[in-house]
Amino acid sequence: MSVKAIVSIGMLSSIAYLLMLINFPLPPFPNFLFIDFSDIPALIAALIFGPVAGILVEFFKNALNYVATGSTTGIPVGHIANFLAGILFVLPTFYVYNKMKTRKGMTLALIVGTLIMAIMMSVLNYLFILPAYTSLLQFPDMRNLVVPAILPFNIIKGLIMSSIFMLLFLRMQSWINKLTIVKSA
């Protein structure tokens, strides 16, 4: 990685961390589900510097947040869930967009990223994340929330992030493509 890439990943990680602090719940869903826009800098990093950069931004923003705010369980279960959700959104979006480098391609990529994130996070919540909260915090079994809460929440979160990213992408597409071409040369 070049110095420019490392500095850019650090800068995008810090922006993602700050965006992670600005979060809000959606009223019909449980109060532990929050929407934030911290995956947008990770997606920008992936588009410009490749998938590893997107993963690094997701990792650093969650590590910074865990160090700054801690976790109610003592173990960063929520941070791991956020990291996985970010990767499951950013990587499919990156790979689909790389096949079709157009605005329609980005729209399709964001839809695919949203669906993969929503479905895989539902599976991961059912198998690992919600049972971890159940055992660590002595909560009752919450796996019954996967279909009525987790799945629709992640679809709505993905659609909101996709809409905001598309507004940015329409302005930044030529710049992103230019940086990607320079990087690959």
UniProtKB/TrEMBL annotation:
Name of this chain's protein: Riboflavin transporter
This protein's UniProt keywords: Cell membrane, Membrane, Transmembrane, Transmembrane helix, Transport
Topological category with respect to the lipid bilayer: Multi-pass membrane protein
Role of this protein: Probably a riboflavin-binding protein that interacts with the energy-coupling factor (ECF) ABC-transporter complex.
Protein family: Belongs to the prokaryotic riboflavin transporter (P-RFT) (TC 2.A.87) family.
Family matches, as Pfam families: ECF_trnsprt
Compartment list: Cell membrane
InterPro entries, per database record: ECF_trnsprt_substrate-spec, RibU
Source lineage: Bacteria, Bacillati, Bacillota, Bacilli, Bacillales
Main localization (coarse): membrane
